[in-house]
Structure formats: C-alpha cells, structure tokens
Amino acid sequence: MTGKLSDEPPPCYSAAMPEDDAFTDADFDPPPHLRGPEDPVAYDQWFRAQVEAALASDKPRIPHEEVVRMMRAIIDSKQNKT
Q1: Cα dihedral 12→18→21→22 (10° resolution)
Q2: Alpha carbon of 46 to those of 2, 8, 23, 50: distances in Å?
Q3: Are the C-beta atoms of residues 69 and 76 closer than 8 Å to each other?
Q4: Residues in CB range of 39: below 8 A, 6 or more apart
Q5: Could you tell me which of 1, 37, 41, 50 has the fewest CB atoms within 10 Å of its CB?
Q6: Are 14 and 8 in contact (CB under 8 A)?
Q7: In degrees rounded to 5, what are phi and psi of residue 65?
Q8: What is the distance between the alpha carbons of residues 58 and 75, in angstroms, rounded to a whole number?
Q9: What is the pLDDT of residues 12-42, one digit of tens each?
C-alpha cells in the first residue's frame, strides 16, 4: 500500500453529479420493508378486524402487572448475559 490517494473515485461511485445536487422526494422514501400499507382504507379495515377479533377472543387475558413482571425478567436475563 503506497498511502497515496487516487484522483479517481472508487468504481462503485458515479463520477457524475446531478446539476443541482439537490435531494428529491424519492431520497426520503423508506425501504420497502418499512413502508406502510399502499391502501390506507384497506389497512384501516384490516386493523379494525384485528381489534374486533382480539376483543371477541375467548383466550384468557393476562393482567398488565404480570406482563410487566415477565418482560422485566426477560430484560434482566439479557442484561446479565453481557
């Protein structure tokens, strides 16, 4: 290694810069796996159906205090491993 920097950009970079060098709206779009639903009406219908199903469920409910206790035990076990 010579330590001299090359005048050429690495091959993975484009040497051409946009004329205005400005950001576009697309630059701020989240990646596909983080995007919300394409159709907000369909998502609203899906979400409401999920809530209705949960409210109508016969599964036993877990008290908030018990969930907090269980989560605290999980967090403590993870912190003790480091």
Answers
A1: -100
A2: 60, 52, 35, 6
A3: no
A4: none
A5: 1
A6: no
A7: -60, -35
A8: 29
A9: 666 566 566 677 777 777 777 666 667 888 8
Quote the CA–CA distance of 23 and 17 in Å, as a whole number. 12
Secondary structure in 3-state letters for the chain: CCCCCCCCCCCCCCCCCCCCCCCCHHHHCCCHHHCCCCCHHHHHHHHHHHHHHHHHCCCCCCCHHHHHHHHHHHHHHHHHHC
Q: How far apart, in whole angstroms, are the C-alpha atoms of residue 78 and residue 1? A: 43
39-81 pLDDT, tens digit per residue, is: 888 888 888 998 999 999 999 999 999 999 999 999 999 887 7
